[in-house]
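EI: anyone free to look at a 167-residue chain?
SC: sure, send it
EI:
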Amino acid sequence: KIYVNPTQELLLQIHLPNQGKKILRIFPPHFLYLSEFRNDTQEKPSGFCMFLRKYVDNTRIREIRQIASERIVAITFQTKEQLLTLYLEFFSKGNIILCSQENKILAAYDQQEWKDRTIKAGLEYNYPKKEFNFFTLTKSQFTELLKTSNKENIVKILALDLGLGGL
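SC: here you go
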């Protein structure tokens, strides 16, 4: 089951074996967490919420993973016919993007366009890849990054070049 509350937070009601009903609360670009409480939901769901209900209701979650060291979470759903992936972007203004098995965008909460990528239905989903993966970064790669970066301090190198964000 899929709901949206008045703060535009997306709520996925899921069933966990031996635990019962849980709510996966999604509020890009801020947070994602598992809860037992649904709180109030909008009486009239948004078009995006209705679209997600059409494709994702009564499916199984097969995988939840983080994309490399990016601030992106991918939730893979299994339907009778195919796999669908819901990408949750936790950077900039944040976004929620539903993609087909071929990684084509079916719908996005917020259609966006930058110089190097576009989030729009019908296009292939591409995320902004960083040069370094923080989880696999070696000491020599980090040293090289510190030497070659044009940022004026280490805080900006960590936030921007490694994608760790401002906070």
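EI: The mean pLDDT is 90.
SC: 👍
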